[in-house]
Amino acid sequence: MGRVGNAVRETGASLGTVFGNPALRRLNLAFAGSAIGDWAYATAIVVWAYDAGGITAVGIWGTVRLLLMAVVTPFASAIVDKVSRQGVMITTDLIRAALVLGAAAFIWTDAPVLTVYVIATLAAVAGTPFRPAVSALLPRLVSRPEELTAANGTFSTIESLAFFVGPAIGGILLGFAEVPLVILLNALTFLWSAALVAAIRVPEAAASSDPDGGDPDGGDPADDEPARGFLSESMDGFRTIWGHRDLRLVSGVYCAQTVVAGASIAFGVAIAVEMTDFGSRGVGYLDSAFGVGALLGGLVAIGRASSRKLASDFGVGVIFWALPLLLAAAWPQTLPAFAAMLIIGAANPIVDVNASTILQRLTPDAVLGRVFGALETGLITAMALGSIAMPLLIEWIGLRWSLVAMALAITVVVVPAMVPLRRLDGRLGEPEGLVMLRQIPLFAPLEPKSLERVAQQLIRLEVHAGDAVIREGEEGDRFYLVESGRVSASFQGEFLSTAGPGDPFGEIALLRDVPRTATVVADEASVLLALERDDFLNAVTGNSEVSSRADDLIARRIPTY
Prior knowledge:
By secondary structure, the protein is of the alpha+beta class. 70% of the residues lie in helices and 7% in strands.
């Protein structure tokens, strides 16, 4: 009970942190309105398509829509990295509002069926930049890694709620109103979303370009070739994932999970018919069990935001997308079938939240939108593979053995990945010295990911009492931060000041490119954190607010030194 109480308190604290942040609160409310309207719209448009052409028309339209989204997403996400992400979200909302209003008008006036399909498909395709833009914007609105996990968890929970509320609203409205009225509701939710996103204030410092440089582990591949075409730049998301070992690992495991998600389109119906007492109408009940599990899993993901086990929890979540299928195959009855869907539902947000957070932590800001776009294309493709393979398997070896084959195939892929995922946990942990860096005004304007990279570059040094750390007149090669102990600064033999835990020193020679202006000696055995000259200058240059704070700091110290 103590553990449960702690989990509840951690979840409450995480939610309080997210909704206490005005920008995150507006973004969550915008997403909630849009997602609920989207699900209500989806219910209405599927009902219309079924009435217009039967189940075949629904299936064909759904397949065409997914394929187009998979093709368009990398190019749409390239736009996310070129312009304001906030602007992309607002524009997407307004375009989709106009398109669904057009669909409603065409349905109302009995326009040709093909016209409605085209408009509805365009509305779906127009929304492809929205999710990459949200994922790329989130890291700029948080201050700590655990806050980012909590924000992703909140989004996942809202999405699970929308899965229930949206279709329910759509179904209720369709009970007494026409399809166009439900579509009109969706248009209003897009306008609601655009208004809230427009009110978000992105911190000025966070809105600046990412100072990280260079390779797939810390830079934008686009920098390698300054003059390239849009097609080539659109592929940078795929290049970044493929060239980064950890991104490649997480993306591959994530795609394995969505193979099962795609297969669930077929095995969900088959389980309802063959394993439950409800027949085909049991599909809705199984979906409800999945949704309840997703709500619980979302709260678990939020509560574990500070667990420092992002990668290993992610891997376990993918495994629990597969293992419950063995439960349903071993006991093909109603209760095990519902239990399997409940467990899979709980695993889903843990996978989604942790994967998104890992990618946001590892990917340079300059290419973040394209990485999420490339991932989305991979996930949609994997889902399509699962949706095609499962009916063929069921036809060939039957439902139960198909579930066993799917579960074992995914488990065989994921279990070996657990060892590198656990190693990744260590790399994702908060670096030594990050807490101290946050407390130094000079570094305060840096966005969280940039500050974390600075902390990863710190070198830990132990010095004895009486050791000279820097000497007056020497060339400046490092910036220092006192972790423990105490040091004293002197100029031409005269005492100037002391520095204790959390105090920085040595920045003047680096910022002004002059010899050391003082001698600093350890008064007692001390532990220092050092940052090499180039790493320090890369962190504090190129940001107007950091430069201004550096000037203020030097102005205060120069008269003393």
